[in-house]
Amino acid sequence: MLLAPDEGQTEIATAVADILLSEAPFDRLYLPDLDIIADEQRLMDLAIPMGWLGMAAPESIGGSAGDLTDECLLFMKLGERIAPLGITAGALAAHAALAAGDEALAAAFITGDARAALTTSARPGRAFATAGATHLLVVEENRISLSLLVAGGDDIVALDASSSTAAVSSADTLLQVDGPELVLRFALLVASQLQGLAQTGRSESNEYAKAREQFGRPIGSFQAVRHRIADMELRARQVEAQIYFAAVALRDGRADAELQTLSALLLAGDAAMANAEINIHNHGAIGTTTENIGHLLLKRTILLTGLAGGANQLKDRIAACAPAIM
Amino acid sequence: MDLNWTPEDSRFRERVRDWLAGHVPPEARPSGTEAVAFDRAWQRELMAGGWAGISWPKEYGGQGLSLTQQMIWFEENAKAGAPSAGVFFVAQMHAGPTLIVMGSDAQKAKHLNGILGGDEIWCQGFSEPGSGSDLASLRTKGVVDGDEIVVSGQKIWTSYADAADYQELLIRTEPGSERHKGLTWIICDMKTPGITVHPIRKLTGHAEFASVFYDEVRIPVSNVVGEIGQGWTTAMATLGFERGTAFTSEMVHLVLRLEELIDYAKANPLPGASRPAWSDDECRRTLARLRADLAALRAMNYSNLSRYAGGAAPGAEGSLMKLFTNQLAQRIERAAIDMMGDRLLDPNTDEQSWLASYYRNLVQAIGGGTTDIQREIIADRVLGLPRSR
Which domains does chain A have, with CATH numbers? Predict the structure, then answer.
């Protein structure tokens, strides 16, 4: 039994975090100068040669042959920096193409020769990460399919200005993968990014509470503030551990994989939301402006939880699962 | 990462399971004075079976098990409904480990076998009426007089004080000293003249803890563990001795308790309703959310133990675990109370046990450091925030 990153995984996660810190600083997303399409393109051009889209794909199609735990660790770090959703869409599209037996197409997503936008049955007719995309990945309750991307009209102004989005219309399905496995993988990659968002909310609040002074003291010395941040830390750690558990359960095909994965997603959504709200509050009036990352943590959280399906739906599915294996 | 157990650990689990199946007493732990005999019988059963001192090193008569095997032990005990340490909790989990780390050879020789064999019950003498969360403000004084220390003052919230043979007693031996300085950790024989025990009745109705008064109680200097004036160091020496395995029992217990509640919800209606509680969206979703939280509690438990087994020193994660465990326990019991309504008020129903555990969890959010103190520890040691006090 080992439910923590090993030395190699920690090294990779740290390296990814360092790259993102310099290449994807939060101020890149501050309005009003934001050109989201240019930002997405730049970060996709960074992610592709780094091999991030093929982290858990086999070497035969150009992947790094990591497993689901490696992939989750990567997406936690991507989530922390509000990285483009095209990475999620592309990585999943490669898994889907591979599962459907189209190795050439799978390899194309990893090299960036094909690029995927993302939509789910929760948001029909609207896709995300559409800038530069060639394909559309459609996630449904028990199926993932790929088609060519067909723009369906004018671009839509998104709530989350850090993702390009567009109306799309249906096109012929190129391939589809039925069954829960890939859909649960999508759920876990979303959960991982939500964990990253929860972590960022916690870290932003923690740094601010050390620096900001009122009544002659850092606000982090006031229990009302520090106890809130302690709770933010607890949420981030709960979700982190649950993602590890779910990743192993899903990778190994354990009978409770669905329960573990949906639990990770439910908790991650709540943790990201709570931490985003509290982070805005902890930053006082600044937190309520666009001059701070707070609003984007909140908006990305709402986007991801909306894509993954609502909390009530998740709870009903968890209720329908058999108890965890003890 | 991996959730599989090594063949050796799997065999160990089988061995524990088999032994427990043949030895766990069928009856529930009695309350009141009969509890002592029940706990003692179980401790002697463990000793005879070669299971005493799960987390103690072999050279002191313990089992010297790996962290993983300790965790397996606690998991299987909880699953089998085996008794907890009960009145032996302080002796097994705190006093014994403190003596192992800080005690003299004579102190070890005198007490350790008795603790493992179920002969010595210990209680803790730390909290005082004016010193709860702020333990370092304690004022019970000890005056060195030749080869004795004369103790006067009062301790409170001392569990099983009336049953205990010995007490781990923390006193101020340097007049005028403040905070963590000038304290001494001493072994107090509870039969020493000058000690008076006043039981306190808890909201559960039981009188498991007490006030203890000391009127010029003379304790040999040779009973000091560690150095005179260095009692804080001794008191902190065993932090992390358990290294997280102690949370395992409660975690498994809560998982099983929630599944029991889910089964109850499928079979029983909400107050004033006719359909099973499970068909009520709010009730079912509350329980589903708790299922997810419990999955995370278990994952955190495994994750922490993995890090310790890999050589990481236990830190303030214990405070995260305690905070989460207390909160979850209260939420589960509260969900039960909401679901059971006035059935809880009838002393002849099975539902009564949920009320008892609801009360117990209110107590547990105070004992061993309140949930607020846990947040303080997290803020200080995990987050590195400027101190509040």
Answer: 7-178 (1.10.540.10), 181-320 (1.20.140.10)
